[in-house]
Each structure stands twice: as structure tokens, then as C-alpha cells.
Design brief:
This protein is of the alpha+beta class. It has helices at 34-39, 55-59, 63-76, 89-112, 117-120, 134-144, 152-156, 175-182, 308-319, 361-374, 377-386, 401-411, 428-436, and strands spanning 12-16, 23-24, 30-31, 81-88, 162-166, 187-188, 191-193, 198-201, 214-216, 222-227, 247-248, 257-263, 271-283, 286-294, 297-299, 306-307, 327-337, 344-353, 393-397, 438-443. The protein is globular and about 70 Å long.
């Protein structure tokens, strides 16, 4: 990045970083997300001289308090900020939404040299707030009270050179919103990594978000690739029968898609990460890969991932609430809606009723919560603890809607003999068709059950 933006070491980065709770394996080992492991490591200790956020703010387990403290520190050092970012695009948008909702309290705290009681009770005001800044407080007021949020990032942080966040895969849906708030600032995805392994870096960081590719670093692990048209589903580790079809890094073909398989220093042996990549070209002789998708994943708003089997199981569990009303789910599909922040899951239901009684609002609201209870722990944690996913929504559509959906697919060239109802939709015309048939919308009335694991130390 210094090749493109000289002098980055002369300023700071406003990065919104958060930890998540840990759990224990049956053998007593600590299990937590990769980023939490990094933030709590010995290497991350000490002052973060190139970040606006103090380490204590990053390690605060309460996401709302952590966000507040990091935003205050970022505002107080606005002229030092040369880059703004978060791990995922959704996280950066959550920060902007937080500013939209809390700018008045932020302004008051900056002017009064204090933090809101809910935050300051966890350790007092940071040193940066120990002097009044009425000029900054007035600027926050002037920029935020008008309700004009286009280009808000460079307006408040005028020296920002670029936005640093992941915009590939499921995060691509957030690019228009980032461009709106970023006012033309470059969107940069610098690297590609997972909890299992670090893969590579983007050697063309200023490319268009749709053209982001990563050059695999062969010293990170031993990489092999399974052509996607040869893969079987539901396997976590490549079985012996796939060994003959594996291709090593030097023999992948440009333009072809592969599922990545890794053997790592930490002990994973031919482990199928679940990422599907496309060979986009080469950097010298090293292949560059575009992230295509997570294998078998239907829904994702942030780091949550729901596949078809899990969605089906959730629908079946929720539909049990319909039986006393002589109703059932005839067809369904889904969509990850990101028009609002945070994003949320939308499930379209076409109901089949055999009785005279209509299914009431309370029952359908309960179905939303029942679906959330059936989803995985990562989803429930992000709903309950992180607030990074909004309440699940069920939109009931009128009878015959899914026949219209099939007619539309056939009109676009699909074979009537091979047509299957898609369990997730993303095309705007399809979503518009479904939304035009909605007769009622229902949201989860509460939070699903989620309890952080207790620490033994």
C-alpha cells in the first residue's frame, strides 16, 4: 500500500476491530475466531501506535461500548486518519450506522470531555478526551444533523486515502453503500485469509472491487485444488477417492474454478476449507485467484453462514407452529437483505391452508423466532451479542407466487424439466417479483437463545 500511498506511516488507521467470546473444546482447549486470537495475543499487546483505537477499546467484550469508544477516539484524531477500515465491509457500514444513530451523544461527550456513563463506567475516559474540543464538537454537529450522509467519511476524516475492508464474496453486496459513504475513496481488499490458513495478498490493491484477486503465498501452507465440477458435497476433508483429481498450485488452469484444499503447519491434512476460487491470471508464475463463493452457503450477512440443509431444517422446525392452524409451508426461498444496517435474512413463504382459520400475526412472528433458534451458534451470537445481524423476517406471499417464479425462470431460458425452486435468490427482478406478491411481513419478536461459554480461568 505504501507504493500507492506514500507516507502511510506518518498517520493512523481508524479500524473498527472487535473481539468475540471464546469457548472451550471437550479437551479444554480455547476456541475462538482467528481475529480474536490475534487481538488477544502477546504480539498485539502494547499501544497501537498506528491505530486510533486503544487496545482496551478493541478488547472490550461489549460490542456497543467498544464501538462507542473506538468512534470517539477516531473522531478526536480525525486529522491523523489516513485509512478507515474494518475486517468486513458489513462491519464498516455498522460503524457508519452507529455514527448516524449516536452522533449527538458523541458530540456532547467531545464537548464535555467525558464519555457516556454506560462506557465510562468501564475504565474512565481515554486520555484523548481529557481536553475539550468545541471545534470538533461543532463539526460533528454540522456534518451529521443535516441528514446528508453521502461522502461522510472524507468529510469527517479529510485525509483518508482509502477504505480498507473485504469486499469480495458475500461482502460484494455492500460495495454500493461503501461507495456512497466513501465519496469516491478507493475500496481496497488487501488480503485473503481464514481461521484455518493465511492464503495470499492482493498485489493490485487499487483495482475495481469486482476485479479483486489474490496471489497465493506458497510458504503459508501446501495448497491443492479440486476442480469444482469434480467435487462431491458434504465432505470436510478430501477423501482418498479425490486424491487423484487434486491439482497442485503450479498446475491450475486459468479461468477454471477450484475448491481449495490445504495442508497446514498446524496439522490440518488435505482439509477442504469450503472456498471456491477462480484462477484470474498470474503474477509472474504465481496464480492469482478470485474468490467466487463459499461452497454450499446460501445466506450470509457478515461472518454467519447458512447452507441449504440448515435452512431447510429451520423452516421445518418453524412450520410445526403452523400445524394447529391447519397450515403448512408449500414453498419457500430466501434472500440476504442489506438495504438496512445491519442486514437480515428474509424468508419468503407460500402457505398451504386446509382450514377456515387464517394464520395469525402472533403465530407467524413466533415462526421467525423459531427459525432463528434453529440456526447455528455463529448466527445467534451475531444476533444477540454483536448486533451485526438484524431480526429474521418472514414475508408471506400470495398463493401461486412460486408458479410465477417458475414462469419467469422459464421465460429466461430455464428448462421446465430441470427447474427447481431456488432456495436463495439474489437477482433484482426475482426479488421484485417476490416482493410484489407479499401479503404480510413478520419479524422475530425477540432474540434467540445464546449463552457465551464460561471461562475456567
Amino acid at each position: 500500500m505504501n507504493l500507492h500511498f506514500p507516507g502511510l506511516d506518518k498517520g493512523k488507521g481508524l479500524y473498527f476491530l472487535f473481539v468475540k467470546s471464546e469457548s472451550k473444546t471437550p479437551g479444554g482447549l480455547t476456541a475462538w475466531p482467528m481475529m480474536t486470537s490475534i487481538y488477544k495475543s502477546e504480539q498485539f499487546k502494547g499501544p497501537l501506535r498506528d491505530h486510533t483505537s486503544p487496545r482496551a477499546a478493541v478488547l472490550c467484550a461489549d460490542t456497543s461500548q467498544s464501538m462507542y469508544a473506538q468512534m470517539v477516539c477516531g473522531l478526536c484524531q480525525r486529522h491523523d486518519v489516513l485509512r478507515v477500515g474494518a475486517a468486513f465491509a458489513s462491519g464498516l457500514l455498522r460503524a457508519i450506522r452507529f455514527l448516524q444513530l449516536n452522533w449527538e451523544q458523541l458530540r456532547a461527550d467531545i464537548e464535555a470531555r467525558t464519555l457516556a456513563p454506560c462506557v465510562s463506567g468501564r475504565g474512565g475516559s481515554p486520555p484523548i478526551l481529557r481536553r475539550p474540543d468545541p471545534e470538533l464538537a461543532q463539526l460533528v454537529r454540522d456534518e451529521c444533523r443535516t441528514g446528508e450522509w453521502a461522502g461522510i467519511i472524507p468529510r469527517i476524516w479529510p485525509n483518508t486515502r482509502y477504505l480498507d475492508t473485504i469486499v469480495t464474496g458475500a461482502m460484494a453486496q455492500y460495495v454500493p453503500a461503501l461507495e456512497y459513504y466513501g465519496g469516491g475513496l478507493p475500496l481496497v481488499s488487501t488480503s485473503y485469509a481464514s481461521s484455518e490458513c493465511y492464503f495470499g495478498i492482493n498485489l493490485q490493491p487499487l483495482c475495481n472491487p469486482t476485479d479483486v484477486s489474490y496471489t497465493i503465498m506458497p510458504n503459508m501452507a501446501y495448497f491443492e485444488f479440486l476442480p469444482v465440477d469434480d467435487t462431491t458435497t458434504g465432505e470436510a476433508v478430501a477423501p482418498e477417492g479425490d486424491a487423484a483429481r487434486l491439482v497442485d498450485l503450479a498446475r491450475v488452469e486459468a479461468g477454471r474454478e477450484y475448491e481449495v484444499v490445504i495442508t497446514t503447519y498446524a496439522g490440518l491434512n488435505r482439509y477442504r476449507v469450503g472456498d471456491v476460487l477462480r484462477v484470474a491470471g498470474y503474477h509472474n508464475a504465481a496464480p492469482r485467484f478470485t474468490f467466487v463463493r463459499r461452497k454450499n452457503v446460501l445466506l450470509s450477512v457478515e461472518s454467519d453462514k447458512i447452507d441449504e440443509v440448515e435452512l431447510q431444517r429451520a423452516v421445518e422446525r418453524a412450520s410445526e407452529l403452523l400445524r394447529p392452524h391447519c397450515a403448512s409451508v408449500a414453498e419457500y426461498t430466501s434472500h440476504a437483505c442489506t438495504k438496512r444496517i445491519p442486514g437480515h435474512y428474509v424468508i419468503y413463504w407460500e402457505l398451504l391452508t386446509t382450514g377456515d382459520e387464517a394464520v395469525g400475526k402472533e403465530t407467524l412472528d413466533g415462526c421467525c423466532l423459531e427459525m432463528e433458534e434453529a440456526l447455528n451458534a455463529v448466527y445467534r451470537q451475531e444476533r444477540v451479542a454483536d448486533g451485526s445481524v438484524g431480526p429474521l423476517e418472514i414475508r408471506v406471499v400470495r398463493p401461486g407466487t412460486f408458479e410465477e417464479l417458475m414462469d419467469y425462470a422459464i421465460s429466461c431460458g430455464a428448462s421446465i424439466n430441470q427447474y427447481k425452486v431456488p432456495r436463495c435468490v439474489a437477482l433484482p427482478p426475482v426479488i421484485e417479483l417476490l416482493d410484489s406478491c407479499v401479503v404480510s411481513a413478520h419479524f422475530s419478536p425477540g432474540l434467540p437463545h445464546w449463552t457465551p461459554a464460561r471461562r475456567n480461568d
